[in-house]
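Proteins fold reproducibly. Take a sample protein:
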Amino acid sequence: MDTVRKAFKKINKKYALLALNGLWCALLQSTLELPIIALFSFAPIMYALCRFDCRRSFAKNFVCFFVPYYFYQLAFLLTVHQQLDINRALALLLLLLAVIALTVWESLVMFAPVCLFTYLRRGKAYDVFTLAVFIAGGEWLQENIPLLSFPWSSVWLSVTSKPLLIQPANLIGCRAVTVLVLCVSGLSALAVKSKKRLPAIACLAAVFAAWIGYGYFSMSRLERISDSSPQITAVVAQDEVEGSKKQSCTAWDCARSYKRIISAAEITNADLVVLPETAVPMGYDENAAEFALVSSVAKGCGATVVNGCFYRQGDDEYNALYAVDSKGRVSKPYFKQVLVPFGEKVPLAFLFGASTLCECSDENSTKPLETALGKIGCAICIESVYPETVRKQAAQGAQILCVCSNDSWFGGSYARSMHYRHSIMRAAENGRYLLRSGNCGISAIIKPTGEVQALRRQTSKGVLTGQVRLIEQQTLYSDFKDLFTVFPALLTALAVIRMYTAKKR
């Protein structure tokens, strides 16, 4: 007992608090839906990083928060062991190593821009904004770093259940929401702990007033735009095939199942029906009976059906979506641009001849689906966590967005909910209705404001039906790419200049 007591006494209480803070913030992004509490939950780490004693202390504060923060959010990968055809203990060990490696990688990528803050800190209230921009810049880097990008975790995920708070995303993207959440947390901490409280309180009031004011303005504006846009009836279908059960289903079984799901719902007069990723898990063949069943669904509903399957072009095979209308006319397919590492592709597979799907980089095959109904923007599964991939669809004229996913390998973990939250932000960024179809949930109809019109969390078979709008007007974000990157770029340049001049002195 004495040894245990001595060990506890040696634990630095500040670092323990930061580790707990990291776990709590991870819970808010992955499991809990407490957006108002989330606004203040990053206060301990923001204060610790703004008020560091030396650069070594800054690094320790960073590690104590971000390592547990990323580890918890990535721990869902352990559930994948059920899908691996190897010894369970070995599978868990390999997956644990993968989680640790990803945690280290994500932490290092985040630290690269955040460490520059140490050269710009001035002991003022605006330090909070500078630090928040660098953290949001780290999230942007996690998305855009070549080959090893994985933007799974972001601060803004903690407030997606409050549409009013995510409206700034339609200006300069989701990173704007990250900056605002961190600013409110940091300024709140300074208002409580700092000796000069007045500047922090004034800044906090200004930030919050501007944030909420724009939120109300944006939501009312998007409602007006939506009301003046053409209305259609949309149907989102899902099955209940979890995990390895999907792998054991034949393409005919899958196609027939969706036919029965639509028939059971007695849908006879719809405009658009959306099926999940690889709803028919085989290469597209217009003469195959499986695809004839999908065409019969379109004819029976009098609708355009968006269906997931595979497409082969020469030696290359792609994960794809296509649309077929009630007259049997088939659109040019959309090919998936971002694949799941080790799920759909084996990195460097060409070195040892492994079979793998292809990532599509041909712009002619990554445009919205052209249909008589209008232009339908596409994102397949993991693509929905990449803002730029979806933004391009809106910029190319997509009037509605579809996210077709296969979340069966998540099992019952919180990752299913995390993945779904990304779709809410994609709708809000681009000001479009978004139809999300998961092969076993979560399926949803999401408004351009980020409000959820219809939701199906359960893994059972069924459909969602709702009236949606085909919107043409672009948001600032859709039109002008990710303008947010200007801010971390300018601060990085300033930090480098300060670093250089400090060394000369």
